Amino acid sequence: MAVLPWQDGVVKGEAMHPVTAEVTERIRERSRATRSDYLERMEAARQAGPGRAKLSCANFAHAFAASPEGDKQRMRDPSAPNVAIVSAYNDMLSAHQPLERFPPIIKQAAREIGATAQYAGGVPAMCDGVTQGRPGMELSLFSRDVIAMATAVALTHDAFDAALMLGICDKIVPGLFIGAATFGHLPVIFVPGGPMTSGISNADKAKVRALYAEGKVTREELLDSEMKSYHGPGTCTFYGTANSNQMMMEMTGLHLPGSAFITPNTPLRDALVAAAPKRAVEIRNGTNAYTPFSAVIDEKSIVNALAGLLATGGSTNHTIHLIAMARAAGIELTWEDMDDLSRVTPLIARVYPNGSEDVNAFQAAGGMSFVIRQLLDAGLAHEDVQTIAGPGLRRYQQEPFLQDGKLVWREGPATSLNRDILRPVDDPFQKEGGLRLLTGPLGRAVIKTSAVKPEHLVVEAPAMVFDSQEDLLAAHKRGELNRDLVAVVRFQGPKANGMPELHSLTPALGVQLDKGFKVALVTDGRMSGASGKVPAAIHVTPEAEEGGPLAYVRDGDVIRLDAHAGELEIKVAPDELMRRDPARPTEASAAGFGRELFGWMRKAAGRADAGACSLFEAA
User: Fold this and answer.
1) Per CATH, which fold does 435-589 belong to?
2) Gap between the Cα atoms of 183 and 155, Å rounded
3) Which of 304, 460, 474 is nearest to 380 (CA)?
4) So what's the pLDDT on residue 562?
5) Does position 517 have pLDDT exceeding 90, yes or no?
6) Beta-bridge partners for 570
7) Cβ neighbours of residue 611 under 8 Å, at least 6 residues apart?
8) Are 190 and 181 in contact (CB under 8 A)?
9) Which H or E run includes 400?
10) In sequence order, what are the residues at sequence separation of 6 or more whose Cβ sits closer than 8 angstroms to the Cβ of residue 350?
11) d(CA 262, CA 130)
């Protein structure tokens, strides 16, 4: 690897990039009070010791009344290690269906070392792929906060020395993370399930979707194509939020090294599952290797997660989630931090929708071990962090293998095995990461640039304003989008309707882009981890529901989105814009499909640039 400019005369890996170092330091300074308060609370919890040692005999007996006799005898000893299992299993989500097998594997592995493991609680897990474009999507973002609360409920029995988090997908890992942070005195290991095996090519899948959007293939043909793509257990193989979650858990050191992208129901996956409780017991309080969640997650590990997100072109959802996750550990992260790091972190991975190949091809090309090696060697990630595998992120350059049936780790590839998917930092796909902050008279927003062709990164066109995604799709069917346009879809923020993903708009807008029109999307809603070729200013803050500028935009107003300059402008004088009467949503979406139960969350939700979390604001 070439010596980079900021490393001239320095042994590679010793020098941090100056911007990475500066951003990390300002996060630390900004977070000094909140982080100190968090760590004080975690230390108080650590000193109190496992709760079961303080329980009355009746309470203690309740904690293991239904356990098998052998486990029961172990658990009579209040000092015997006991590991909590918190799982998002259900058999509707392909990613979470494999988790059904994990608790028996974990419990048996714990017994082998004289410990016990208990299924402490389940958390909900909804699939954004099922609810895209449907009313249920309006519960999606807030399901993260419900999962965080459910995780706290599971662990609040206070009978555990460590915890294993079983969850994969979009809101689920962030929710488990936030909940685990409130028990940060415990060692916590995230136990993934891995991606499904590859189905039809992503190019073929996208082609059929585009043809369906144009009315050129039938619904049966579309369904047949989708079933060939989503065909078995494991995460969807595109590089969306679910797989971005797994990448980030590797970058933060909360996985066993190399765990992220091993397919389900294989001997290697089962060996990694069995290794998790054994490692959790090794790093519990009272051992020389004690490694609590609060020691693993700090300012440096959060920056590492962000570096991985940028270098791999990960999900835009994490411009919201990562802020909320960091905040749960007393760390104050901002969009400006993300933007500054994106400008110096090269894009070294192309995985669908940013490229043509899926996450299994990414893994085969070198995967996370290659990415981590590159970021560490370039000084774009911090090596001197604590992980559940031990000190230092270099441990995550290794990959797991089975050798004579025994789990071992070996050094991962130092060079890319497929440069169409993975490249070194000195020869990247793009010199900058995949995200950019946009600011201007319409507010603050983010845009994912890694999947957008350079010629589409600047769009200036008249606005077509919609108050729902259904209105836009209806206009598309009527043929009204055949023109240059900036589609403004408002009242999609967290306070308005829970901030649903608007990924179902991509095929319709993509058709217009393919026809040669200038097309962009501006919204206070979300897209998804699958944000693709249509330039989209998303998470616009303040949202229209709070009287943000989007509420004053009218059809025909000229909007300019400039991802190069980081600008989101409207060609209307500010005083003229704000003299207009603000729009109100054409219909309420507060009832039906369970939405009426989430009214307090909509009211309590913070801004998108603060994590759109109802828990912190309500507190």
Assistant:
1) Glucose Oxidase; domain 1 (3.50.30)
2) 8
3) 304
4) 97
5) yes
6) 559
7) 320, 321, 323, 324, 325, 327
8) no
9) strand 398-403
10) 313, 356, 357, 420, 421, 429, 450
11) 24
Report whether pLDDT(3) > 70.
no
Highest mean pLDDT out of 13-27, 124-138, 369-383 = 369-383
Closest residue by Cα to residue 314 from 240, 204, 235: 240
Identity at 182, one-letter amino acid code: T
What CA–CA distance (Å, rounded) separates 175 from 382?
Answer: 25
How far, rounded to the nearest angstrom, does the alpha carbon of residue 438 sit from its chain's CA centroid?
A: 21
Write down the domain spans for the chain: 5-197+232-411, 435-589
With residue 536 as reference, give the H or E element that holds it.
Answer: strand 536-541
Q: Which of helix, strand or coil describes residue 409?
A: strand
Distance CA 92, CA 69 (A): 33
Maximal CA-CA distance, the chain: 75
What global pTM score does this model have? 0.93
- For the cut 80, the answer to whether the pLDDT of residue 6 exceeds it is no
The rounded distance, in Å, linking the Cα atoms of 594 and 426 is 50
Residues 6+ apart with CB under 8 A from 613: 144, 145, 178, 324, 327, 605, 606
pLDDT digits (tens, 9 = 90+) for 534-557: 999 999 999 999 999 999 999 999
Q: Which residues contact 129 (CB under 8 A, 6 or more apart)?
A: 230, 236
Rounded to 10 deg, the angle between the 241-252 and 367-377 helix axes is 50
3-state class (DSSP) for residue 263: coil
Tens digit of pLDDT for each residue in 93-112? 899 999 999 999 999 999 99
CB 122 within 8 A of CB 201: no
The three-point CA angle 588-589-593 to 5° equals 150
Show the tokens assigned to 16: 């941090």
In eight-state DSSP terms, residue 460 is E
Distance CA 108, CA 116 (A): 8
Q: Span 72-89, mean pLDDT?
A: 89
Residue where the block lists tokens 């996060």: 27
Q: Are strands 116-122 and 82-87 parallel, antiparallel or unpaired?
A: parallel
> Is the Cβ–Cβ distance between 324 and 612 less than 8 Å?
yes
In the chain, the percentage of residues whose pLDDT exceeds 70 is 95
Place of tokens 């999507």: 137
Distances (CA, A) of 327 to 174, 181, 303, 306, 428: 12, 9, 13, 14, 32
pLDDT of 133 higher than 80: no
* Mean predicted confidence (pLDDT) in 595-604: 89
